[in-house]
Fold this sequence. Notes:
Layout: H1 2-21, H2 43-58, H3 60-77, H4 84-102, H5 119-136, H6 143-161, H7 165-185, H8 194-215, H9 222-227, H10 229-244, H11 257-266, H12 269-289, H13 294-318
Helix pairs in contact: 1-2, 1-7, 2-3, 2-7, 2-8, 3-4, 3-8, 4-5, 5-8, 5-10, 6-7, 6-8, 6-12, 7-8, 10-13, 11-12, 11-13
Amino acid sequence: MIIFLLTFALSVFINIVSTKKRIFPDSTIKPQRVHRKPVPRAGGLGIVIASLFYGLVNAFPVFLSSLPAFLTGIYEDSGRTIKPKIRLFLQSLSAIVFILITGNLLTDLGILDVPSFIAPFFTIFAIVGVINALNLIDGLNGLASGVTIVALLFLGLVAKQEGDMYLYKLSFVILFATLGFFILNFPWGKIFLGDGGAYFLGFMLAVISIMLVNRNPDASPWYPVLLLAYPIFDTLFSIYRRVRSGRTPLEPDKLHLHSLLYKRVFKNNPLTSAVIVLTQFVLAFVGFVVYKNHYAIIGLMFIFCLTYVVVYYSLIKFKFQAWIPIRKQ
């Protein structure tokens, strides 16, 4: 609760200072933007500062390794630009530091093993992938932070179920810190997560997931993937459709599923986020019942991915109109 209140207070303070001093200016050129008024992009700063009160003592190696990715995002949030290759390198640096300090690698996928000479590269790829996947869905009020809260909730519950109190406490510290930001971001969007916040939360989700399956072999390594099924599959699907249309995979656009749902179905920013996060919660809850069963989890992932594709192409083909009579926000 202290972490929650601290994040909330910091977010309010950062919002006021950023608005007056324009320290973290709102981006007006991103094609996925759906808001009209400028909003500070510094929400991640409050989350990280509040979390450090716990992390510096209890999880110092994890927080230390997050710094290259987080600082990269904060630099971008300040209005500056970093080339994609440099951004990916700095995110990879966070993953490398995490591996070197903690020794955690992705080697067991439940149904198959990752060869030892591939494991370091695969682990780096997984961490960087989650960092960018969470950032890509940060397009609506409460979407990225809501997805993060649900994922951390169930990562923490699995850790507690397995008797891993270290990861249980770490998960809930980041959860409450995110919640302190969330109530300012959802539904009215008083402050945004920003790249720094998205990179930090994406990194923490990735490394907590890796540590969870390494420290608790009974938990299926596919369950954390299920918890992050929406951002991960949305990213993979976005890469596929961009490459297929002859565009670079790194080019942002307005064709993410959440963008289409917002524009063609709900026409309401927070409602769209709420529906997606609620869907993720139901998926996570069902998966929690069978979190030790690799094949059941993979089956749930298949159902989710199939549903995603059907809904996406339905939106593209038929251009649904809003079916809920709610005024635009």
